[in-house]
Amino acid sequence: MSHRATLTPQMLQYAEKFDDRGDIRWMPYLMYFHAADHRSEVVNTDRLGFRLSEGPNGQTASVGGPLPEGPVRLFAGSSTSFGIGASADRHTLPSRLWSKHAPSLPWLNFAGRSHNSTQELLLFTLYRHLLPQVDEIVLFSGFNDLGLSRLPASVRGDSGAFFNCNDFYGQMEELRTRNRKSSGGRGLFGGRRQPAPEPVDTRVPDLSEQIDIGSELTLRHLDSWRLLAEGMGAKLTFVLQPLATWVREEPAPQEKLIFEELDSISNFGEVYGDISSMEARETYSKALRTGCERMGVRYLDSNPVIASAIDKDDWLFVDRIHFTDEGHDLVAGLLAEELGLK
Question: Which of 306, 304, 312, 303 has its CA nearest to residue 327?
Fold first, then answer.
């Protein structure tokens, strides 16, 4: 049996329903979201696909119901905020905040796995109307925009690349080709269809360009979060999420076993190697901090905070981006302390 299966057996259930490309739940506008009404001992979702968060005495809540009557706090972001890696709903970051570290108000899990900042914002605009009064929003994010920024301009477009975008554009090109043949070159409204566009730039940006692209997109959409939060009377904080190699250069023993196994079956180093260094994180964080200060949004880089709170053998990550149960609890406690959450 693999080290990953032995050390993190819960990841098999995430892989079964949340990793399998054949089970992707394609959605209008969002592109994709989690399976709805999913039930297991590891992860449970509501009628819309939002993960349940758990508070004191096992109380649960989610965006799609049940909802608390009074003010709530939102924990938004992508897969780390969703809680990939947690062995049960009660171990995710919003659950640990609600049940232990900042329990004065319920916390709702408002995260979308594999979402970029465009999708995170769009998810909020689509389902904000369901929420009761929102007191606070913590947007725990930042990696996906940077990770996707190395893709060429042909798939980044104006709003940034998204996961599975090559599948999307490939299918759309096939559809366009079929329609062009079947319509005899005529458009939807009878006009002459335009010829296929010339090949576009497929150059991979260098590291400095990736950081510029990732920070610009993140801050652009954060400014819209800011306007929405202000209109709701909610306090907004942006937290740059951690990456294992941004926290420390030498992983814990269990992490080393898992990372080496994952590297043997994936291309993490090839895809993310240039942005996974401490220096890249420092440059990216500086750009985000400057932008947040300019727009008046509270900012926290969680990486140095976590680094200062752990020993070299503390096992935090099930892969380079997602936490163990102990990692979730540690980070939730640090967030409560750093952000003054009660």
Answer: 306
pTM for the structure as a whole: 0.92
β-partners of residue 31 are 27
Amino acid identity of 164? N
**Spatial separation of the C-alpha atoms in residues 219 and 273, rounded to whole Å:** 23
| pLDDT tens digits, one per residue of 100-133 | 999 999 999 999 999 999 999 999 999 999 999 9
Q: What DSSP string runs through 61-89?
A: E-TTS---SS-EEEEEESHHHHTTT-SSG
* Contact yes or no for 243/304 (Cβ under 8 A): no
Domains and CATH numbers, the chain: 3-151+207-339 (3.40.50.1110)
Strand, helix or coil at 107? strand
Q: What separation, in Å, do the N-terminal and C-terminal C-alpha atoms of the chain show?
A: 43
Q: Which two tokens stand for residue 226?
A: 């800011």
pLDDT digits (tens, 9 = 90+) for 53-96: 999 999 999 999 989 988 999 999 999 999 999 999 999 999 99
Report the residue count for the chain.
342
Asked if omega into 199 is within 30° of 0 (cis), the reply is no
